[in-house]
Design goal:
The protein is an all-beta fold. The chain contains three helices and 37 strands. It has one domain: Beta Barrel (Maltoporin, Chain A), CATH 2.40.170.20. Helix content is 3%, strand content 57%.
Length: 678
């Protein structure tokens, strides 16, 4: 793979573009940033994360850069090529439900997906090319629609790099990564290119054998007055999976073993996206359009030999789709009663053409078809909000969002075919009081929603048992939320905020991709508090500390209990970053605590907390060359990445056994990175 990186350099790098105000030794993006403009903070939990903050984090996997969002846990219960598992505000978000992810206006969540509603795979992202991230939580933001009930992360790409670079990383357990990236002046703009190659086996007895290839080409031009960009991205990966194992199997196969070595998958993603922006006396107009083609094949076996003791319980989930969409908005400045007023209007449309399949397999060989579907799904959202600065110490906003979602399902079982559609309106409101002594008070409330799998809205019978009739579920599920918070910068270099929030869901109804059926769970309520701190007391020292505590409960009475399985009640993180960004030593360390979770409704089974420390030490030379060493799981914690409690049956067992199933944290790992600017 090294020869491919080196062979691509002449194409990628060319002549470096001139970056304004870039120090000669700088080579990673402190740069021109996100496709979305940075808006003033409208809620205490709002946060804008810089490229420097992301770059300072030791990462085990690409998705962990999203943990720069306070209170968010990003982990994995399977192979590293699969979408991550996300946890935020007392939600087990699975692979993306209730957490909206986007890149330069292009949504990353996949609806009506083979493996789970809202499936959001970020393995195609190159952390060095992320120019920033907007963090928005709750239901009070009019511009955020589907999947944004717990929160939304809006990432943006850099437009150029100060200098081309070649970067190579090698580490424990067969980890290797190569990156070549650079930009050059082209016409009146800049052309940015990057190629990334990677491989990883992991500590598993049957290695992940991950192989991934990533490419990006982006052209951008313009300034604050008018700009546009066009971006092409390509990604391909294949891997094996060590899925979670039951605790009772540790003595039989070991902590890092798998019970089905043929589990794994392949993924491909290709996208073309563009953005245009113009600002003037009549406001700012933004337009983003995108086209995405993706395929995913997953082979999993979570119950081993429970359904089929002879051939095992492996199943194959296939997802192939095209996604086309457009997002446009206009912000208009004005005055009312002599005070500043800003009005924003927006439109979001999206169409998914999807081919889905669920099959029984053994060692990835087809045994039987459970169901196949062709789905055409569309959505349209109109939103608007107005923010009025009534006095120097009072800012008020009100917004309204209207969404339609619907489509058609053509299933191999005619009884499950059909059409469905639904309209939902979501009002929003907020108040900001202050600042007084660099302190502001925020009050926010609103309603939102998440969508369910379209197949769940048309289903009538169990695909595995056509005599078993099933109830349809609503396509859109209402969420209601509120937040009160305080933000202060009263100490030099300190940004501290505290937010109290409440969020209710009408139903946590999900389509269960692993089974091909629907499950309607109960209404729920989450109440919590978040405390976030960023302190930069010295030019060479930055500190941060975040704590999020949540009480998550089903809101109706049931003998089964009131706890929501998998909902974390505590997430904490803290870090220190040393170094000024110029030549010399740099480093840092991060602590991340993933609190205990109930695994069943009556709380009789709980996971243990997971506390991990990652550290970094490195040196930047005068000529820009950088060498660094990352130490992951520094203290060798023997903990779980995720835990579940359900019934499974090992080969040789006479009947299913209900047990805790877990995926272990990787042991201590070292990764050495050398970055050479050209």
């Amino acid at each position: 793979m090294r020869w491919l990186v080196l062979g691509m350099l002449p194409v990628l790098l060319g002549q470096p573009a001139q970056a304004q105000n870039a120090a000669p030794e700088a080579f990673l993006p402190p740069l021109t940033v996100v496709g979305q403009a940075v808006a003033p903070r409208g809620a205490a939990s709002d946060r804008d994360v810089s490229a420097e903050e992301i770059a300072a984090r030791p990462l085990n996997r690409p998705g962990e850069m999203l943990e720069a969002a306070p209170g968010l846990i990003v982990t994995s219960h399977s192979g590293e090529g699969k979408a991550n598992q996300y946890f935020l505000r007392g939600f087990n978000l699975d692979h993306g439900t209730d957490l909206a992810l986007s890149l330069d206006g292009m949504p990353l969540n996949m609806r009506t997906h083979a493996h789970g509603q809202g499936y959001a795979d970020v393995n195609f992202l190159i952390p060095e090319l992320i120019g920033g991230m907007q963090v928005r939580k709750g239901t009070s933001h009019a511009e955020l629609g589907d999947f944004a009930t717990a929160g939304a992360l809006r990432l943006g790409l850099v437009n150029e790099l100060p200098r081309p670079l070649v970067q190579v990383t090698g580490g424990s357990f067969g980890y290797w990564r190569g990156l070549a990236a650079g930009s050059m002046a082209l016409g009146q703009g800049s052309l940015l290119g990057a190629v990334e190659l990677g491989s990883y086996n992991g500590p598993w007895r049957h290695g992940d054998a991950l192989r991934r290839v990533n490419g990006l080409l982006r052209y951008s031009q313009g300034d604050a007055g008018e700009s546009f960009s066009l971006t092409a991205m390509a990604y391909s990966a294949r891997w094996s999976s060590t899925n979670q194992i039951p605790a009772r199997a540790i003595g039989l196969v070991g902590r890092y073993a798998t019970l089905d070595p043929t589990d794994g998958g392949q993924a491909q993603r290709y996208s073309l996206s563009g953005g245009w922006q113009r600002s003037g006396e009549h406001g700012t107009t933004r337009v983003n359009a995108y086209a995405v083609q993706s395929t995913l094949n997953l082979f999993n076996n979570f119950t081993y030999a429970q359904e089929d003791p002879a051939q095992g319980d492996q199943f194959h989930q296939r997802d192939r789709r095209w996604v086309l969409g457009l997002e446009a908005s206009h912000s208009l400045p004005g005055h009312w009663l002599g005070r500043p007023l800003e009005t924003r209007l927006g439109l979001q449309t999206r169409y998914d053409d999807i081919r889905l399949g669920l099959f029984r397999t053994a060692a990835r060989n087809w045994l039987a078809t459970i169901r196949t579907d062709a789905v055409a799904q569309g959505s349209a959202g109109l939103w608007g909000d107005t923010t009025w600065r009534a006095t120097d110490w009072l800012r008020a906003s009100i917004g309204l969002r209207g969404d339609w979602a619907g489509g058609r399902v053509r299933s191999d079982l005619a009884a499950n075919s059909g059409s469905a559609g639904q309209v939902i309106a979501s009002p929003k409101a907020g108040l900001v009081l202050g600042p007084w002594r660099a302190t502001e008070l925020f009050l926010n409330a609103g309603t939102g929603f998440h969508s369910n799998d379209l197949r769940g809205a048309t289903i009538t019978v169990d695909p595995g048992d056509p005599l078993n009739r099933l109830a349809r579920v609503p396509l859109l599920v209402r969420a209601k939320g509120g937040e009160i918070g305080l933000r202060t910068a009263i100490l030099p270099g300190l940004d501290s905020s505290v937010a109290l929030f409440v969020l209710t869901l009408g139903s946590e109804i999900l389509f269960v991709g692993d089974a091909g059926t629907t499950e309607a769970s109960r209404p729920s309520r989450r109440v919590g508090v978040e405390w976030t701190n960023r302190w930069h007391p010295l030019p060479w020292l930055a500190l941060d500390a975040d704590v999020s505590a949540t009480q998550a409960r089903f809101s109706n009475r049931d003998p089964a209990g009131s706890r929501i399985p998998g909902a974390p009640n505590l997430v904490a993180a803290g870090g220190v970053v040393l170094g000024e960004g110029g030549p010399g030593w740099f480093g840092g360390a991060r602590l991340r605590v993933f609190g205990p979770r109930p695994l069943v409704e009556d709380n009789s089974q709980r996971s243990r907390p997971t506390a991990l420390v990652n550290a970094r030490a490195g040196y930047r030379f005068e000529n820009g060359i950088q060498a660094r060493l990352d130490l992951l799981n520094l203290f060798g914690a023997r903990a779980s990445q995720v835990d579940y409690y359900y019934a499974s049956q090992l080969r040789g067992e006479a009947a299913p056994v209900t047990d805790r199933h877990f995926h272990p944290v990787e042991p201590v790992a070292l990764r050495f990175t050398l970055t050479v600017p050209l």
